[in-house]
Amino acid sequence: MYINDKVVEEMTNALKIASDATRIKILSCLLDELDSTKEQSEHLIEKCVNDIALQIGASQSLVSHQLKVLKDGDFIKSRKEGTKIYYSLKDAHVREIISITYEHVLEKFESHD
Amino acid sequence: MYINDKVVEEMTNALKIASDATRIKILSCLLDELDSTKEQSEHLIEKCVNDIALQIGASQSLVSHQLKVLKDGDFIKSRKEGTKIYYSLKDAHVREIISITYEHVLEKFESHD
DNA sequence: ATATTATATGAACAGTTATTCATATTTGCA
DNA sequence: TGCAAATATGAATAACTGTTCATATAATAT
């Protein structure tokens, strides 16, 4: 299967965005359920910057920087309400990439230990 | 959804492995079909180092280095036959990660242009 | 044994990036 | 207007990583 350079580049960018511990933590805390055997909830989880920072144990500045990366990469969207900005996952692909990677890791654990 | 640090670390590692242009090209050329609307073929595609290098237009050394990374990360497996070593995708998760990322990119193109 | 083919490896360099710190911007409210 | 809360930004640094080049290993055939 041949894919052109532009598509490879965009795929690389998308996966680079997902391949960072801080960003995975952010995405995970915006993701309701990782277990794919359970039904994906349609409920949209929204969290503001400070809540995310507290939940994942990172600084406000770091979370803000990484939220920008995730947003530029179309992984999340935002909604303004007063001084707060609520972030949430953008679409199903993001959920799937995280879920499948999660399963891949679990399977690796099983087969190697 | 809370996942522990060890799992986050492994997920990060797995996605780091996938987030490189050379490695995506290698995986793509070991992947029969990217279009998820078509049925995933069960046919295993096997290619040796030099064939891959020629197909993606990279040096033998670079491909060998990256095949090692992909194999250590459980993305591919290998089979020896004489002097040649045949590589192929390891499991369905790898196909899915690549396919979904591909779709994510296509959708991004559509929504932004 | 020697040559050839196929693949792997190690060191080195260049480019990239995650994090921190300090500061700026924006909004709501008294 | 001035203050506080929430978020964003820019610069600097430290750590990481993809690629190249040269060389090594392994297997096969003559």
Structure explained in plain terms:
Chain A has helices spanning 5-18, 21-30, 49-56, 60-72, 92-112, and strands at 47-48, 76-81, 84-89. Chain A is of the alpha+beta class. In chain A, strands 1-3-2 form a 3-stranded antiparallel beta sheet. In chain A, strand 2 (76-81) and strand 3 form a beta hairpin. In chain A, helix 3 (49-56) crosses helix 4 (60-72). The longest helix of chain A is centred in the C-terminal third of the chain and has 21 residues, at 92-112. The first copy, chain A, is globular and about 45 Å long. Chain A binds chain B through residues 1-3, 7-12, 14-16, 18-21, 24-25, 28-29, 31-34, 74, 91, 93-94, 96-98, 100-109, 111, and chain B through 1-3, 7-12, 14-16, 18-21, 24-25, 28-29, 31-34, 74, 91, 93-94, 96-98, 100-109, 111.
Topology of helices and strands:
Two copies of one chain form a homodimer.
Chain A: H1 5-18, H2 21-30, E1 47-48, H3 49-56, H4 60-72, E2 76-81, E3 84-89, H5 92-112
Antiparallel strand pairs in A: 1-3, 2-3
Helix pairs in contact in A: 2-3, 3-4
Chain A binds a DNA duplex (30 and 30 nucleotides) through helix 4.
